[in-house]
Specification:
With about 260 residues, this protein is an alpha/beta fold. Helices cover about 25% and strands about 25% of the residues. The protein has a ten-stranded mixed beta sheet with strand order 1-9-10-8-2-7-3-4-5-6, with helices on both faces. It binds NADP nicotinamide-adenine-dinucleotide phosphate (NAP). NADP nicotinamide-adenine-dinucleotide phosphate (NAP) binds near residues 84, 91, 192, 193 and 226.
Length: about 260
């Protein structure tokens, strides 16, 4: 993997550090200058050259080994991974892996061995017998609104899920979700989509960072972009922090100005 931006200056470490899991983690470290308890929400998405957020119904055909390394690194740095219920259903989400390479780093940061996953859902039509709920290293959360169906709430709790209410009706309010998660001690947040959920978080102006992998593939068709929902109005300006490259894939990291 090579760093394209910022251009290395005198005394810069060479790019070989990016091939080491901990070196890549350093390149994606959460900002250290935030007051204790302040949440930071980054999103990680992959898009094709022509802007598609999926191919053949999934994101995997757009990905690459290096993209999976970045994906795993961002997970290893996070306290909690937010994901929309449709992505969980379509991609068969499993618990985040405990990875030996990051054990010491996570322990030093006061984090459990793996990030928790928080599924955002109104209907809670989820497979509560799946490993995501029955075998996570840390309990999976379900984020929903106060009007969620009682039976499904009971099923979620019976499966060991931690239910967090973050909305008055059946929908989760993104700003409230971030606040509720921070109050539970989850401040290093990672949003993994999908496009319908991510659009709402961006429109609510709670997205601090976007890690976008630009995949060198043209897909055409009618796939959504990485955000598919309410407009960000007025458009919100982000600035590039870094751009890495491997095998024609660009790994961009943009932060809110
Ligand atoms: N390119 C990428 O990086 C990337 C990343 C992730 C996913 N994807 C792809 O995106 C597709 C799925 O994405 P999607 O946009 O269709 O769905 P999604 O955003 O993953 O999930 C939508 C679901 O989330 C729940 N939801 C959304 N907003 C909510 C709110 N405000 N409050 C409560 N629940 C809410 C609802 O669940 P209920 O129906 O359960 O109520 C809704 O049906 C898949 O094809 C996946 O492969 C691509």
């Amino acid at each position: 993997m090579q760093r394209l931006f910022p251009r290395p200056g005198p005394g810069a470490t060479d790019d070989s550090a990016l091939d080491d899991p901990l070196g890549l983690a350093d390149a994606y470290a959460y900002p250290a200058d935030r007051a204790a308890g302040t949440p930071y929400l980054r999103a990680n998405m992959v898009g094709s050259l022509d802007g598609a957020a999926r191919a053949e119904g999934r994101s995997a055909p757009l990905s690459s080994p290096a993209d999976m390394r970045v994906f795993g690194t961002l997970r290893a740095l996070a306290d909690l991974i937010l994901v929309g219920a449709e992505t969980v259903r379509q991609e068969g989400y499993r618990p985040a892996k405990v990875r030996a390479a990051f054990a010491a780093r996570r322990a030093a940061a006061g984090q459990p061995p793996a990030a928790a996953i928080a599924v955002v859902s109104r209907r809670l039509d989820l497979d509560f017998s799946a490993p995501l709920f029955t075998a996570p290293a840390v309990p999976t959360l379900v984020l929903t609104g106060a009007g969620a169906p009682d039976g499904a709430l009971a099923a979620a709790r019976a499966a060991g899920a931690r239910v967090v209410v973050a909305g008055e009706g059946d929908a989760v309010d993104p700003a409230r979700a971030v606040r509720e998660l921070a109050a539970l001690g989850f401040t290093r947040l990672l949003h993994e989509g999908g496009p319908r959920l991510l659009a709402q978080f961006a429109a609510a102006d709670v997205l601090d960072e976007l890690c976008l992998t630009l995949s060198p593939l043209l897909t055409g068709g009618e796939a959504p972009r990485i955000m598919n929902g309410p407009a960000v109005a007025p458009p919100s300006r982000f600035t590039p922090l870094s751009i890495l490259e491997e095998d024609g894939f660009l790994f961009t990291r943009y932060v809110r100005c």
